[in-house]
Amino acid sequence: MAADPLADRGGVGTPAPVAPPDRLVVGGLYRHVRNPMYLAVLSLIIEQALVFGQLVLLAYAAVVSAAFVTMVRWHEEPALLRQFSDQYAAYRVAVPGWLPRLRPWQSHRPEKLT
User: Fold this and answer.
1) Higher pLDDT, 114 or 20
2) Which of 21, 37, 44, 111 has its CA 20 to 30 A from that of 61?
């Protein structure tokens, strides 16, 4: 039987909310920042504001940012803490939510985060 190439990568994420991952995803961009997808959306809105010279998009980015922060703080983080307990707590301490780390986070105990 062939080895699973994803076995050593930690949790494998899913874009479908009806099929959440069963393991905490801490690889790839998630080693630098906990909310890379939200940051990508915000960067696209800000880039459009700059490219098209539409300052109203900056106000829109501020509203979207407030919505993202509120949803993460009051829904996602408590849900992840309930589901992954100590694993997520350690990850949350080590990896910032909104300002990416320059160096990727390396878990000293990977068995705790898979």
Assistant:
1) 20
2) 21
